[in-house]
Amino acid sequence: MEFWIVQSLNGIALAMLLFIIAAGFTLIFGLMGILNLSHGTLYLVGGYIGVSVSRFTGNFFLGAIAGMLVVGILGFCMQHILLRHTHGHLPQALLTIGVALFFGDLAIWVWGGFGHLVSKPAFFEGSIHIGELSFPSYRFLVILVGVIVAVFLWWFHEKSIYGAIVRAGEDNEEMTQGIGINIRLVKTLVFSLGSMLAGLGGVMGGPFLGVYPGQDLEILTLAMVVVVIGGKGSLLGALIGALIVGLVDNLGRIFLPKLSLFLIFVLMAVILALRPQGVFGRE
User: Fold this and answer.
1) Is the pLDDT of residue 283 over 60?
2) Which of 167, 226, 263, 265 has CB atoms 3.0–4.6 Å from 22's, for a disulfide?
3) Which H or E element spans position 127?
4) What predicted TM-score, i.e. pTM, was given to this entire model?
5) Dihedral, CA atoms, 240, 2, 144, 233, nearest 10 degrees?
6) Can you spell out the DSSP letters for 140-152?
7) 185-222 b/e with 16+ CB inside 10 Å = b?
8) What is the pLDDT of residues 112-133, one digit of tens each?
9) CA atoms of 126 and 72, how far apart (whole Å)
């Protein structure tokens, strides 16, 4: 029983990390219709910034804030300078692939071609013991941050005036612009928020996944699987999809390590066969 509890918690911790990343992708692609294939690279840059700042200051949380802000500013510049003039998913895909390659090579030049670990906060270096059950306290922090992000995004999207503007722009961009809302600025700010979530994910994942060249493609693939399973444009779908992928991936690595990634794509294929729009996608 203890084995299953620990492994389930491991899967949930991974799921919360994937949700933070996939939620940013959903905001950018699902709600604003911008296909950003550099999202995994934003995660990687956020992780590297977190490594550098946390090592320099000795403070993990300053590294997390720096990773979020730097990647958020980078996302703002990408949208405002490049993507606002690019229409259609194919041009967006080609442009963001180019951005990903540029920043991927730049990261290797600055941080080297080897992996780095972000240092955990001192308070979360140990384990939490509940009876005979022991679980790394840092992974509880990841779960907590994921829950906080989920609650914030729910409030932002469903309860705030800004979320209403985003939903209006998603449903009818021309009408939204006609009533005096600067929809271009809205898109830029939402893109920046989604980028900040990728940067936060890079720092939060650093202590147990590490940060290394090539990780951007791995993370982007998993984030896209989460969005496809959950449904395009659904934050709840991103959360449910992340939980499914996180649990399946963790249990697959234990029982079928050579087929763990394959199982995720089989699951995605089954869900798409039964419900092509995803679990919570629109008809």
Assistant:
1) no
2) 226
3) strand 127-130
4) 0.90
5) -10
6) HHHHHHHHHHHHH
7) ebbbbbbbbbbbbbbbbbbbbbbbbebbbebbeebbeb
8) 888 888 888 877 887 777 667 7
9) 31
